[in-house]
C-alpha cells in the first residue's frame, strides 16, 4: 500500500475512495489517524465545518501541516489499518485504550510429543498460541481440564526418536501417578499422543462438541469390546467435559460463534465490555476504559474498542452483538442489535458488566483520592504543620570521594510524584566532598530562582540527612530571607529520625505509619534521582578524560563532541560522516581508530 501526501489546503484534491488519513504537525509528528469510506468527504469535514466542532478538534486542525493518505479496498480494511497504525504510533489526538497488561497464552509447542504450557511472550515459529486469556484463572481452568482428560507430558526432555532409542531417559513420578504414558522410554506411540493432542486443541479453540463426541465414541467402543474399566474412564471424562461446559454456559448452545460489545459513557471516558461466546459458553470477558479525545460519538468509541479487542483476542466471530443500531454500517463487519431472545440477554449481561466496571473505577478513584488526602493530613498532624503539605520538595547530594558532585530535588504534589518538576544540580561553588556546603548551595539556588520567577514555595522542605545537612539548608533560607515561611525537616536514614531546626532531639513517627512511608518514598526517590544523574555525569567525565588522552584531541574537541552528541553512547554510535562534521576529518579518523582499538574495554 502506497501513501500520498497533501498540504492542508489541498484537501479538495483527495480521492472519493475508502482509506486511512494521517495528520502530521510542523515537527513531522503523527498527531491523528482516521479511517473513511470517502477520504475526500471525511477530511474536508475537518476544514469546512464552522459550527458544532469542539475546541480540541479546532486545536488539532490548527496543528496540521501535512496530510498523508493510504487507499484500501473497503471501509473494513481501513478500520483494520487504522487500528494497526494507532497501536503502533499512539497519536496524541486518537482515543486511548487504557490497558497495559500482558495477557497469558497457552502454547502448543512445535517439537516431537508437543507440550502445552502457559507463556506471556509470543515468539513466532515456536508453536501454536491459543489466547490471549483475559485472566490467569480462566486459562488455568482450561489447562487443568486438558490435563484431567489427556496424558499430555509436562517435562522439557528432547523426545527426538534417536534420543528415545538411545535409552537416555527414565520414567518420572508423572508416569507412576498416571499423568503420562511414558513416551520418553518408548511406551507411547507419537501417533496415539497426537490424537489426544488434537482433541486438546479443539478445547483450546472453545469447540467442546468434538471432544465430547470423541469420548462418547471411545466409551461405546470399549463397552462393545467388554473393556468396562476403560469404558468407565471414558464416561468419567465425558462427564467432566459436560460439567465444564455447563459451568461456562451463559446462553443457548445454538449461539455458536459471537462477539458481544457494549459500553457506558460519561463526559471523559467510555467503559467497554467485550465478550466472546462459543456454543453458548463465555470464553472471554474483558473490560477496558477509553479516554475521549475529540468528542467522539458512542458509535466511534464502540467501533474503536471492538476492532482493537477483536485483534487482541484473535476473534473469528461470525456476528457481533451491539447495544444500539449502527448508523454507518461497515461492509465486512456483521453488527447486529438484537431486540429479543437469548442474544438480547447477552447484551444485557454485557451492559451489566460495563456499568459495574464504571462504578468500580469511580469507587477506586474516590478511594485513591481519600487515601492521598488522608496520608498528607496524617503527615500534617504527625509533624504539627500549619498547612496541609500538598507540595513537598526533597533534596539529596551525590558524590563519591568528591568526584563529580551533583544533587537532586524531587517534588511531590498531593502525595504523588510530579516528575516534570524534578531538578538536577551540578555543584558549582564547592570543591571536594563537602555535603553541608553542597546542600546550602543547591537549596539557595532553588529558592532564589523560585523567588525571582514569582513561583509558589513548597509547604514542606525535606532534607535527606541529619542535623548537619539541615543546618546548611536553613542557612541558605536565612540568607534569602524566607526562613520560617515554610517548614523544613531533615530525615536521617539509619533510624528514620525526623529533625527540626533548633531542636536537640529528633521525633520518631510510628514505623507502620502511612505518613512515614510517604516521607521514606520521597527521600528514596530523591536519592535514586541523584544517583542516576551522578552515574551519568561520572561516565561522561570519564569518557571526556579518555578523549583528551587521544593524540590530536584536546579538551576543546572533547567538549565539542560531548556538547553535540549529548552522551557517550551516541558518540560511540556516530558515523564517520557525523564525526567529521563536528571535529574534522583527521581528528574523526584518530577517534574512530582509538574507539575500534578500545572496543572491548568499555
From TrEMBL:
Entry keyword set: Cytoplasm, DNA damage, DNA excision, DNA repair, Excision nuclease, SOS response
Source organism, top-level taxon? Bacteria
A Pfam family for this UniProt protein? UvrC_RNaseH
Which GO cellular component terms, listed alphabetically, does the Swiss-Prot or TrEMBL entry include?
cytoplasm; excinuclease repair complex
Q: Which InterPro entries match?
A: GIY-YIG_endonuc, GIY-YIG_endonuc_sf, GIY-YIG_UvrC_Cho, Hlx-hairpin-Hlx_DNA-bd_motif, RuvA_2-like, UVR_dom_sf, UvrABC_protein_C, UvrC
- Asked whether the keyword DNA repair is assigned, the reply is yes
Query: What GO biological process term is on the record, naming one?
Result: SOS response
- Molecular function terms, GO-annotated: DNA binding; excinuclease ABC activity
Tell me where in or outside the cell this protein is found: Cytoplasm
Query: Subunit comment for this entry?
Result: Interacts with UvrB in an incision complex.
NCBIfam families cross-referenced by the UniProt entry: uvrC
The record's family statement is:
Belongs to the UvrC family.
| Biological role stated in the UniProt entry | The UvrABC repair system catalyzes the recognition and processing of DNA lesions. UvrC both incises the 5' and 3' sides of the lesion. The N-terminal half is responsible for the 3' incision and the C-terminal half is responsible for the 5' incision.
Q: What is this protein called?
A: UvrABC system protein C
Q: Which organism is it from?
A: Algoriphagus kandeliae
State the gene name recorded for this protein: uvrC
Amino acid at each position: 500500500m502506497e501513501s500520498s501526501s497533501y498540504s492542508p489546503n489541498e484537501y479538495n484534491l483527495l480521492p472519493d475512495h475508502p482509506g486511512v488519513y494521517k495528520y502530521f504537525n510542523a515537527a513531522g509528528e503523527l498527531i491523528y489517524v482516521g479511517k473513511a469510506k470517502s477520504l475526500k468527504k471525511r477530511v474536508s469535514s475537518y476544514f469546512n465545518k464552522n459550527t458544532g466542532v469542539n475546541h480540541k478538534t479546532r486545536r488539532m486542525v490548527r496543528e496540521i501541516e501535512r496530510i498523508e493518505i493510504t487507499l484500501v479496498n473497503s471501509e473494513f480494511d481501513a478500520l483494520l489499518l487504522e487500528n494497526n497504525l494507532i497501536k503502533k504510533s499512539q497519536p496524541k489526538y486518537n482515543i486511548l485504550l487504557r490497558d497495559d497488561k500482558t495477557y497469558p497464552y497457552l502454547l502448543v509447542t512445535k517439537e516431537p510429543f508437543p507440550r502445552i504450557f502457559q507463556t506471556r511472550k509470543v515468539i513466532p515459529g515456536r508453536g501454536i498460541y491459543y489466547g490471549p486469556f483475559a485472566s490467569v484463572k480462566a486459562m488455568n481452568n482450561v489447562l487443568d481440564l486438558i490435563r484431567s482428560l489427556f496424558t499430555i507430558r509436562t517435562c522439557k526432555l528432547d523426545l527426538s526418536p534417536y534420543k528415545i532409542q538411545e535409552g537416555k531417559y527414565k520414567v518420572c513420578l508423572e508416569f507412576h501417578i498416571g499423568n503420562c504414558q511414558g513416551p520418553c522410554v518408548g511406551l507411547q506411540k507419537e501417533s496415539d499422543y497426537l490424537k489426544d493432542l488434537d482433541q486438546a486443541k479443539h478445547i483450546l479453540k472453545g469447540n467442546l462438541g468434538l471432544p465430547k463426541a470423541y469420548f462418547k465414541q471411545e466409551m461405546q467402543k470399549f463397552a462393545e469390546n467388554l473393556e468396562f474399566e476403560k469404558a468407565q474412564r471414558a464416561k468419567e471424562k465425558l462427564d467432566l467435559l459436560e460439567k465444564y461446559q455447563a459451568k461456562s454456559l451463559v446462553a443457548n448452545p445454538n449461539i455458536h460463534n459471537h462477539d458481544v460489545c457494549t459500553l457506558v459513557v460519561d463526559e471523559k471516558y467510555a467503559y467497554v465490555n467485550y465478550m466472546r461466546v462459543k456454543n453458548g459458553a463465555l470464553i472471554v470477558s474483558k473490560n477496558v476504559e477509553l479516554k475521549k479525545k475529540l468528542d467522539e460519538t458512542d458509535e466511534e468509541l464502540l467501533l474503536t474498542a471492538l476492532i482493537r479487542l477483536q485483534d487482541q483476542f484473535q476473534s473469528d466471530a461470525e456476528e457481533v452483538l451491539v447495544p444500539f443500531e449502527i448508523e454507518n454500517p461497515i461492509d465486512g463487519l456483521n453488527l447486529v442489535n438484537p431486540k429479543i431472545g437469548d442474544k438480547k440477554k447477552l447484551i444485557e449481561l454485557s451492559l451489566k458488566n460495563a456499568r459495574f466496571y464504571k462504578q468500580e473505577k469511580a469507587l477506586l478513584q474516590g478511594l485513591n483520592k481519600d487515601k492521598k488526602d488522608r496520608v498528607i493530613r496524617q503527615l500534617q498532624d504527625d509533624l504539627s504543620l500549619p498547612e496541609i503539605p500538598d507540595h513537598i520538595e526533597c533534596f539529596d547530594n551525590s558524590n563519591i570521594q568528591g568526584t563529580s558532585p551533583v544533587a537532586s530535588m524531587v517534588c511531590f504534589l498531593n502525595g504523588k510524584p510530579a516528575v516534570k518538576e524534578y531538578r538536577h544540580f551540578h555543584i558549582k561553588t564547592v570543591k571536594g566532598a563537602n555535603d553541608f556546603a553542597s546542600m546550602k548551595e543547591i537549596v539557595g539556588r532553588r529558592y532564589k530562582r523560585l523567588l525571582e520567577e514569582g513561583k509558589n514555595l513548597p509547604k514542606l522542605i525535606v532534607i535527606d540527612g541529619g542535623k548537619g545537612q539541615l543546618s546548611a539548608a536553613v542557612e541558605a533560607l536565612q540568607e534569602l530571607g524566607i526562613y520560617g515561611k515554610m517548614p523544613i525537616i531533615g530525615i536521617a536514614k539509619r533510624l528514620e529520625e525526623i529533625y527540626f531546626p533548633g531542636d536537640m532531639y529528633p521525633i520518631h513517627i510510628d514505623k507502620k505509619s502511612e505518613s512515614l512511608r510517604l516521607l521514606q518514598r520521597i527521600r528514596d526517590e530523591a536519592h535514586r534521582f541523584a544517583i542516576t544523574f551522578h552515574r551519568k555525569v561520572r561516565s561522561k567525565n570519564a569518557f571526556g578524560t579518555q578523549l583528551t588522552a587521544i593524540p590530536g584531541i584536546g579538551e576543546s574537541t572533547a567538549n565539542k563532541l560531548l556538547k553535540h552528541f549529548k552522551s557517550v553512547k551516541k558518540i560511540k554510535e556516530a558515523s564517520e560522516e557525523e564525526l567529521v562534521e563536528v571535529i574534522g576529518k583527521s581528528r574523526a579518523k584518530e577517534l574512530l581508530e582509538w574507539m575500534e582499538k578500545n572496543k572491548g574495554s568499555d
